[in-house]
């Protein structure tokens, strides 16, 4: 019966797009009415992937990951500096209390992490970016530890610290937040709000890890930034050859 596209728009910004079959969605009658009114629909146009030379595709991807050409031209593999709790003094009382509670959960969970200082800094930076993006309006009914789990999972995914071949499991990062299950749907939404579309051409270079693209070097730990330097060197080698 065709494909159903659902688009979620928050304050004028598309934050989620899902695709599913019309059959079983509850819109079957509407689909049948449209088929009756338009018996010969236009042929479906397939998405065409933009093809780039390998080194250009790699450089484009790296630029998206770190947040632009300037950040890519001046890489820094030093550890992220230690961070302070997220500044929330300008927020209304309910939102300020929620941010402080989330920050407290992050600091408590970090005590059990490897890469604790850098991960906590990255999580706090992401939480600050989420506050600026008005994500508190979406999270207002969630418990602070659940929001903290979303932030932690998003940072872990953005730094290739979970997933196939990753050095840690999701449980390592979330166990002190009262859950070991990945909040994948919410963290994917957060990554799209902060970083936009994961790859503007429809596919990332085949050599790179499957990570969330957040577009901000302040959200990347030093071990992953060193890995990005390797990819940049690979792109230069391919270009030279």
Explain this structure:
The chain has 241 residues and is mainly α. Helix content is 49%, strand content 7%. The chain has helices at residues 28-37, 54-66, 69-73, 93-110, 116-132, 136-139, 144-158, 170-174, 184-195, 222-240; strands spanning 3-10, 13-21. Strands 1-2 form a two-stranded antiparallel sheet. The radius of gyration is 21 Å and the shape is globular.
Determine the strand fraction and express it as a percent band.
5-15%
Report mean pLDDT, rounded to a whole number.
85
Total strands: the figure is: 2
How does the helix and strand content classify structurally? mainly alpha
Give unreliable regions as ranges. Answer: none
> DSSP helix count?
10
> Which sequence of SSEs, written as H and E, runs from N to C?
EEHHHHHHHHHH
In one word, what is the shape?
globular
Helix content: 40-55%
Considering the chains and any ligands shown, give keywords for the structure.
10 helices; 241 residues; mainly alpha; 2 strands
Topology:
Elements: E1 3-10, E2 13-21, H1 28-37, H2 54-66, H3 69-73, H4 93-110, H5 116-132, H6 136-139, H7 144-158, H8 170-174, H9 184-195, H10 222-240
Antiparallel strand pairs: 1-2
Helix pairs in contact: 2-10, 4-5, 4-7, 5-7, 7-9
